[in-house]
Specification:
about 160 residues, alpha+beta, five-stranded antiparallel sheet, three-stranded antiparallel sheet, 6 helices, about 25% helix
Length: about 160
């Protein structure tokens, strides 16, 4: 059946990110990722998604870098000993971290960390959404864990293997 002339041929769809504290009183202290709604991209042409999708100028500015879009984004593995106050090893790969741990028979956690601040990267990748008043405060950011892969080691061996 032919489409009436007044019916649009395509639908414009947009993707955006809004203030997380919507419907919240301003005095609650909630901090959003963006203080107001932001249109990041629109789909405005028919056909396969890559050819029908365009970033807005603001979307281009905020577009994640290739390292954030890829599961192979740069990361390091940091070893933190069981009773240590500070990390004692940083490795480019999980395998080198595990080899070092086995060689020294250490006990602790070998954790994956992205390049950049753990809090900022988690928010930008959508793995964490601030939703409480203390989220984004200095204390919260300073104690934030990246929430990526980690392995508990005892005597240099992963706990699951022992």
């Amino acid at each position: 059946m032919p489409r009436p002339p007044s019916t649009p041929r395509s639908l414009i769809a947009s993707a955006g990110w809004s203030w997380i504290g919507r419907n919240t009183a301003p005095d609650t202290g909630l901090r959003g990722v963006h203080p107001e709604p932001v249109v990041l991209a629109v789909r405005h042409r028919p056909g396969p998604f890559p050819g029908a999708f365009s970033f807005t100028p603001e979307g281009l500015r905020r577009r994640p870098g290739a390292d954030q879009r890829s599961p192979l984004r740069p990361a390091v593995w940091i070893f933190h000993g069981e009773h240590a106050r500070h990390a004692s090893g940083v490795f480019d790969t999980l395998d080198t971290g595990l080899a070092w741990a086995a060689e020294h028979q250490v006990t602790g956690i070998l954790a994956e960390y992205p390049h950049g601040g753990a809090y900022d990267v988690a928010v930008s990748e959508g793995r964490f959404t601030p939703s409480e008043a203390h989220h984004g405060t200095a204390d919260h950011v300073a104690t934030f864990s990246p929430g990526l892969r980690h392995i508990h080691l005892t005597g240099g061996c992963p706990d699951a293997v022992r």
